[in-house]
Amino acid sequence: MGGLFSAYAWSKVWGFRMGFLTGLGNTLLTALLGILLALALGLVFGLMETGRIRGLRVIAGIYIEFIQNTPILLQMCFIYYALAFSGHSIGIVPTGIIALGIYHGAYMAEVFHAGIGSIPKGQFEAAQSQGFTYMESMRYVILPQTIKIILPPMVNQVVNLFKNTSCLYIVGGMDLISVTYSFVTGEKTGGAYSPAYLLCGVLFFLMCYPLSRLATSWEMRLKRKEMAAAVTAAKAA
Amino acid sequence: MSDIAIKMEMVNKSFGDLHVLKDVNLEVKKGEKLVIIGPSGSGKSTTVRCMNFLEKPTSGKVSIDGELMTEKNCRRIIREKISMVFQQFNLYPHLTVLKNLTLAPMKLHGISKGQAEETAYHYLDVVGLRDKADVYPIALSGGQQQRIAIARALCVKTPIILFDEPTSALDPETIQEVLDVMVRLAKEDNITMVVVTHEMGFAKQVADRIVFMEDGRIIEEGTPEHFFTHPDSPRVQEFLGKIIR
Ligand SMILES: Nc1ncnc2c1ncn2[C@@H]1O[C@H](COP(=O)(O)OP(=O)(O)OP(=O)(O)O)[C@@H](O)[C@H]1O
Ligand SMILES: [Mg+2]
Question: What residues in B contact A122, CB-CB < 8 Å?
Fold first, then answer.
C-alpha cells in the first residue's frame, strides 16, 4: 500500500498536503535565517582569522575547529536541551536557525578566509597606502574581489544547509523531513512511504537545484566578462 | 609648518633576524625630487615603505611635514599627505579606471561623485588616457596601467608621492611613456617626489638629489652632477659603471 503507483497512497499524501506545506515552510524559514546567520558568522570569523590580531585569530580557529570536528546532531541537541533544561527554551525553529547558522558559519568562515587569502598582497598595500583602514580595505577593495572565488563554495554551503535542516528531526522538529517521517510512520496516516519520500525529495530538489544553477550561471557570467576584458587587452597590446 | 616634507631619524628595520635598515637618516625638503638608487636588496623599498608605514620601523622616527608618525595617526597622515606608486601598479581590478581614481576621494576624503569624477578626468588628461575611463585595468598595457596608477595618486592631491621602481615591471617599449609622465610631474614645484629607480637618465634629468644605498645604509648622497661625474665611493662608481654600461 506504500507503493509508488498506488492511487490510494497518493490520495493519502494529498490529504496531508497542509502538513507537508507546514514542513516546507519551517524548512524554508530555518534555512533562510540560518543562511543569514551563517554568512554573518562566516564573515566575522573569516575576517578574524585573516586579521592581524593574534587573539582574534586564535578564537576564530577554536570556533572553526570545534564546530567542524563535532557532529551537527550533537550541536543541535546541545543547543536545544542545554537551553531547555536551563529554563530558556527557545523553540525548535530558532534552535535550528542557531545550530545551522553556527555549524555552517564555521565553514563559511573558511570560505571567506580562503577567498581573502587569494587576493594578492599588493591590493592590501594599495588600499593601505591610500589611507584605508583594515575594515575599509576589506569592504571596498578586498571582499568585492573575492566574490567570484567564494561564490561556488558558498552556494555549496547554502545547499548543504538546506539539506541539513533535516537534522532538526533529532529535537522533534516540524521541518520537511521530520514531517514526512512522522507522516509515513504515523499510526493513522502511515504507510505511504514511496510517494511521501518522493514528494519530499522533489521539494528539496526544487529548493536546492535552482540555487546551484544560479551560482553556476553567475560564475560563468563573471568568467565571460573577464574573458571579454582579456580579449580587449590582447587586442590593445 | 616646516619646510621638511619627510624626515627619517635613526630608522632601523628588521624582518626577524634580518637587519635591513641600519640607522637611516634622511630629510626630504618640500618640493624636492629625491631619487634613491642602489643594488638589489640594499633596502631601497623598505626605506620608502617606512615613509608611509607600509613597514613600521623597528626603531627610529619618521616625521611627515613636521609631525611624528605613529601607529595612531598614520592613517590620517597618509590620507592627507602621501600617495604611492608601486612597481606592480596594484590597480583595483574589480573597478573601472574611473572608479579606481574616485574610490579614495569619495570614500576617504568625502568628495562628491561629480567633483571626484571631474578631478579624475583632469588627471586622466594629464596622463593622456581620458579615453580609458570606462575600461577595466586588465584591458590596459603595463605602461597604461602605471600611468593610471600615477593618476590615482594625483587624484587625492597629496603633496608627497612615493614611487617604488615604477618602470621595472614594464616592457621596454612602454617605459618611456611612464617616464614622460613622471618628468612632467617633476616640474610641479609643490609636489615632493621620492623615486626608487634604475633609470639613470630619469635621475639625471629630474633629481634634485640622489641617495645611494647599500646594505641598509645610505652611503652617499649628492646632486646628479656629483654622482655622474665624480662620486666619492668606489662602490657607487662600480654600481654606476655596471648600470650605465
Ligand atoms: N616583508 C619582508 N620579510 C622579510 N624580508 C624582507 C621583507 N621585505 C624585504 N625583505 C628583505 O629586506 C632586504 C631589503 O629589501 P628591499 O626590498 O628593501 O630591497 P631593495 O633595495 O628594494 O631591493 P630591490 O632592488 O631588489 O627591490 C632584502 O634582503 C629583502 O629580502
Ligand atoms: Mg625594491
Answer: 86, 88, 90
